[in-house]
Amino acid sequence: MCDTKTDGGGWIIIQRRIMGYVDFYRGWKEYRDGFGDYNIGEFYLGNENIHQLTSKKPHELRIDLEFDNENYFAQYSSFLLLGEEELYKLQIGDYSGNAGDSLAYQKNMSFSTYDRDNDNASGENCAVSYSGAWWYNACHMSNLNGDWGNDAYGKGVNWDGVTGLHDSVVFSEMKLRELD
C-alpha cells in the first residue's frame, strides 16, 4: 500500500491502525511475516519485508498520528531494520516533526513480541506487560503496536510526545520512502 500525497508522495506504508479491528498482540512469526487486512487498511507489512526493503537502498521513515482531532508527524532522516539474525534491530537517523521524538528511546533496540523477549527490562517482557510488540528498551516511550484504545499506563497505541503513556492515538501510520 502506498501514499502518493504526503510530503510529495513516494511512501510505502508499513503499518496502519485506524479502527482497532485487527489485533496487533501477536507473536514473532506473525510480525516477521506480516498480517492484517489491506481491504480495511489495518496491517503490519512484516519485519522481514521491511528489512528487505531497507537493506537494499537507504530509506527515511515518517510516522503520522491523529489524537484529539489534531494531526502530528515524526520523520527520521534514515531508517534501517536489520535482519532476523540481528532480531530486527531498529536503526534511525535524525528526527524532525511536531510529534516529539518518542522513538529515540527505542533506537538500536531489537524487536520483542510476547513469545520473543529481546528488551532491556530485567525480569520483565515489555511486550507482555504493555500488550504489544515493538522495539522495547526498558520499556518504551512509544508503542504503536499496543492495544487499541487502551488508556491503562503504557498499554495503548502510545506516542509519548503526543498522547503521554495514558492515552491512545486514533490513527497511526508508519511509512518508508527511498532516499535519493
Automatic annotation (TrEMBL):
It comes from the Eukaryota. PROSITE patterns: FIBRINOGEN_C_1, FIBRINOGEN_C_2. Pfam families: Fibrinogen_C. Keywords: Disulfide bond. Gene3D superfamilies: Gamma Fibrinogen, chain A, domain 1. Residues 1-180 form the Fibrinogen C-terminal domain. InterPro entries: Fibrinogen-like_C, Fibrinogen_a/b/g_C_1, Fibrinogen_a/b/g_C_dom, Fibrinogen_C-term_domain, Fibrinogen_CS. GO terms for cellular component: extracellular space. This is Fibrinogen C-terminal domain-containing protein. It comes from Biomphalaria glabrata.
